[in-house]
Specification:
Elements lengths: L5 H11 L18 H4 L17 H9 L1
Length: 65
């Protein structure tokens, strides 16, 4: 599998969110390689939300609806 770097990820996410449609992208970082970096990224037309064991209802009710 190709190695990803943070710039590639940000560029791709910004590309995905250029349209006027709603999109959800779920990112699973099994090894936690990007955990620290993801806290600091800023996307042009999207927000990053972190799903944790204690906030599933909050994510659904207040962010997605």
């Amino acid at each position: 599998m190709a190695e990803l770097n943070l710039k590639q990820i940000i560029d791709r996410l910004n590309t995905e969110f250029t349209e006027d449609t709603w999109k959800l992208i779920f990112w699973y970082d099994d090894n936690g390689e990007f955990a620290e970096d993801m806290k600091d990224i800023e996307l042009e037309n999207a927000r990053v939300y972190y799903l944790k064991p204690d906030n599933q209802f909050y994510m659904y009710k207040f962010q997605i609806m």
